[in-house]
Amino acid sequence: MRMPATEFDIIDRYFRLPAQRDDVVLPVGDDAAIVAVPPAKQLVVSTDTLVAGVHFPENTSARDIACKSVAVNLSDLAAMGARPAWLTLALTLPRVDEAWLDAFAREFIETAARFGAELIGGDTTQGPLCISVTALGLVDAGAAMRRDLARAGDAIYVTGSLGDAAIGLGLLRQGGVADDSAAWLVDRLNRPQPRVDFALLAASCCVCAIDISDGFAADLGHVLEASGCGADVRLDNIPLSPQALAYFNASGGIDWDVVLCGGDDYELCVVTSTANEAQLMQAARQSGTRLSRVGEITPRQGLRCIDAAGETRPLPGRGFEHFSART
Amino acid sequence: MRMPATEFDIIDRYFRLPAQRDDVVLPVGDDAAIVAVPPAKQLVVSTDTLVAGVHFPENTSARDIACKSVAVNLSDLAAMGARPAWLTLALTLPRVDEAWLDAFAREFIETAARFGAELIGGDTTQGPLCISVTALGLVDAGAAMRRDLARAGDAIYVTGSLGDAAIGLGLLRQGGVADDSAAWLVDRLNRPQPRVDFALLAASCCVCAIDISDGFAADLGHVLEASGCGADVRLDNIPLSPQALAYFNASGGIDWDVVLCGGDDYELCVVTSTANEAQLMQAARQSGTRLSRVGEITPRQGLRCIDAAGETRPLPGRGFEHFSART
Q1: CATH 3.30.1330.10 fits A7-140, yes or no
Q2: Which chain A residues contact residue B143 at CB under 8 A?
Q3: How does residue B57 score in pLDDT terms, banded at 50, 70 and 90?
Q4: Which among A52, A53, A123 has the least Cβ separation from residue B49?
Q5: What is the domain class of B10-140 according to CATH?
Q6: For residues A117 and A84, is the Cβ–Cβ distance under 8 A?
């Protein structure tokens, strides 16, 4: 069977589209793309890579891989309070599979468009399946949320629910999706929804946020380290989905390692003065986002987890690491 | 033996540096970087990936891989006439090798700095060796060189010399580097020098340029297709290095397939009115760049190669393709 002739043909067929955004001066098709950054905006730049077998199971569908590769990058932009604008895609593929490419490209472009972002360039290469996306977004100058701006006394909030993706991965590894609840948990792993709408509203009253995809404990740890403070987190207030709760109930109780360190939850942790709580909750309502207050920033260093009985629990391990220490 | 603990440690140790450019608002270390784009400038965005065993031999040194991964992207910016500003690096590694990382990171950062660019972010993941770089550059609004602006009557120029990298690859495949001349040809493959300085000067008098790393014939073909015209190219005027000439003399004559289609020559093809020739040659002298006039744009479609006897030679095959048709 004949394969499509060339890299250029592939790019043409699947990824070269007319510009949609009017700030795209030159879209896919030249040596580089050209875009116009509005005055008074700063450019926010994030790059995230998904490697087959590391960041998603080898048998993940093209659609899910495309959705996730856009979402993980837009989640980083959301954590800065940036509005998504443009994406580049470095797609490394073992072979040309037109059905795969068609499904991937459609989903990639649709997911980006849903958040107002447009594919403007990239590179298609042959090799082991690997998808690296660079997302470019815009913030008002000086208005980005950062991880180094938490202050003692601030309250800690998280969007959505924690642990779902890690449970979903466990279910996949155990061999499959038995019911709607399991399917929902696996979707949380494969089709994360970046909190872009919430973040754009929250940025008007918050200066500190982080994407918690490496696990809530590890990523909150980054905020604490960068900001030079500590935190008390109330386990009772950690948001769990009904699906995760049902799973834990059936399997002997809540596994806090999974919830706090499981990773792949593309939720945001936002830290702000309690004076902003009403405005922040309004941002959550307006964007249809579950938002939970889970703890407080403390002047004392370190992350302390407090259970329902008021006891301090041992810290769970750090979040997902691509290069874990195995001695 | 214990490996470095975590992805974060690796990033910290090798890639997190204080910002050098004063337009870097937030450097490596948050969910995303923030940079300031000056008013009246447009942003030029290029992404290029190098896969081990596809874009460089598996045994290429960390230094050479780093140099090339920066250079191939800056060459794309140069082709637009853009000044390099910022880079992100998506680095996928099979394992943590500190000596490799140290050599790679130093060379990456130094090569970028030599052209005024700064690493502002990226992602380090585990998997088969693959390096994807997104380069961000700046041009005056409306001043970028593009591939769709060649016009009949324009002259065609190329920088440097053609075919060196393909000969270098051939030498490596034949088992090694016997002398200084061979080492120079292999360096042309492994350590390309993007024509940034020349391009910044040339952009003031040229509107059409392309990076010819997919092979001169294929990339000039892209200019012709995008611009809706053809070209006559004089083989006598194609620039060859003394090293390439010596190689061809020793091996039975010039192989025009290697010269015109070999690829991996990170040179520029510039197309402009002959009225601009003096200014263009001045740009070449000022930047220490060899520049050769190799042909003319014609109203008749297609690329025609004319030899020393004035005969039209059959077109060589297309340039290097990652996904070649093999039936």
Answers
A1: yes
A2: none
A3: confident
A4: A123
A5: alpha beta
A6: yes
